[in-house]
Amino acid sequence: MSRELPLPRLEHAGIDAWLVRLFNEIDEANMPWLTALMRRCETTFGAALVDMVPSYTTLLVHYDPLALSSHEARRYLETALSGLAPDEEGGRAAVKELPVWYDDSVGPELERLERVSGLDRAGVIEAHCAHEYRVFALGFAPGFAFMGSVDERLAVPRLETPRQRVPAGSVAVTGRQTAAYPRLSPGGWNLIGRTSAILFDRQREGFSLLRVGDRVRFVSIDRVEFERLGGDLSPVEERS
Amino acid sequence: MTMSDDAVGVLRVIRAGPLALLQDAGRFGVRRLGVTQGGPADLHAWAWANHLLGNSWGTAALEIALGGLEMVAEDDMVLALCGADLGTTLDEVPVPCWQVVTIAAGQRLCFGSPRDGVRAYLAVAGGFLAEPVLGSVACVSREGLGGHDGQGRALAADDRLRVDRSCQASAREHYKGRQVPVEERIDYRNPARLSLMPGAQIADFSGASLFAAFNRPWHVDARADRMGVRLKGPRLRCRLGTMISEGIPLGAVQVPADGQPIVLLNDRQTIGGYPRLGALTPLACARLAQCQPGQEVRLVAEAPQRAQEDYRRFRRRFGVTPTLGDASPR
């Protein structure tokens, strides 16, 4: 059953942008509304649409300020919002699967999650793999997808001291969110494994493996399979 | 860009300096993937450098921060230099800023250190040649995207910047001696007044904080780069802590828990969760990008409509026409 939209609120965000606030709380059910609004905006704004940034509860819409006044852009948004219905779910978009090798060498915080949750190793992996996650936002780095919501037993805070070098493919959790690092970067999330999937590829159509609104599942694989899929076996360097 | 070798002229880097980056207007249409905007930190100086040579809006030019860059031309070429005064010389003869510079094969162009401003822009007739990545050559090192090599690398010694030779001869004829009108040149040493459009969380700041924000001087912190510029001054208090992350526009003035605002610029992260005073206009961002650490700036509230009109006026000067004729929703 589709909910009614409690908002939306249009907030002025600059000379060329409006922020559409659709919800007040993070919820996986928000995402079909945001993706539906994005497609509406593409049709309504046409060539005057410059960029869109969907994120959890909001959509930032950048338009060409030489083509539209801010007043006109607001009217476009009102048009796009009128009669908005969430995207249909019924298996239309396939669930994307990320193969993950869960191991201490590439996931040094697996132990921490065992400690916090009281689960054993298999239990932690099962809890992380059981849920079908939803991509709430992309940010921090190209192709970095914030996904939720993680089983509350696995909810742990960020590391007090972020790592300077988190290897590409690292699968991580913090709070009720999970993600995979597309490229070597600094990072403060708890590392629990590594995926062989290439998350961002400039040669690929659409560039990013994951998009806002996608449904994602992690699949546990062993070292042999990980290596066969081209995964990077090098352990996480500590104190780097 | 595929072009036969004899059609390509080369500007060779001898010494790179701290940060020289190729920048076109920026990378657009992919921010939903977490890809930042990039583009020139000082839109005003970048636009004038291209405009002096008749280059169309969006042509790639070099952004040279803090000087230290030394290059030798392997071919005759026509350049334009705008923005910061970095004590630039051509074969040890000072080169004035805000004008076209013709350079002969074998001559050395050398950037010293900042005298006025932070970033100089060097354009070449026809633009620097580079393969666009995700639709743009804007160089963002953190993301490994764009630039002269496509990998987001800043200039380094022995890099060879490529230019279209066929553009140089006609440019010499048409654009030699051209200068930016005096009233358009900015003395970056003057205190900057930065136009800020108040945003949705403005009412969540205390009255005293709002008074201070718009009436007290701010000083540019040493922590300033292409991602953002921190301002030092009175501590601003907001009753919101962190918020759910949302898309961040250029110039957003976010206020973290320490109460010291950070103005987010071209290479900012695409989403963020701090309350914001609002957003600086694009031209205010450009002005801020030329402020040296310690320099005083003031924030001035501006209505969005007026800011948009100012921006349109700025863009019209560079010969840009709207992409859409009618303004009715489809």
UniProtKB/TrEMBL annotation, chain A:
Domain Carboxyltransferase: 8-210
Database matches in Pfam families: CT_C_D
Domain of life from the UniProt record: Bacteria
Alphabetically ordered keywords of this record: ATP-binding, Hydrolase, Nucleotide-binding
InterPro entries with a match to the protein in the record: CT_C_D, Cyclophilin-like_dom_sf, PxpB
PANTHER family associated with the record: 5-OXOPROLINASE SUBUNIT B
NCBIfam families: 5-oxoprolinase subunit PxpB
Protein name, as recorded: Carboxyltransferase domain-containing protein
Organism: Litchfieldella qijiaojingensis
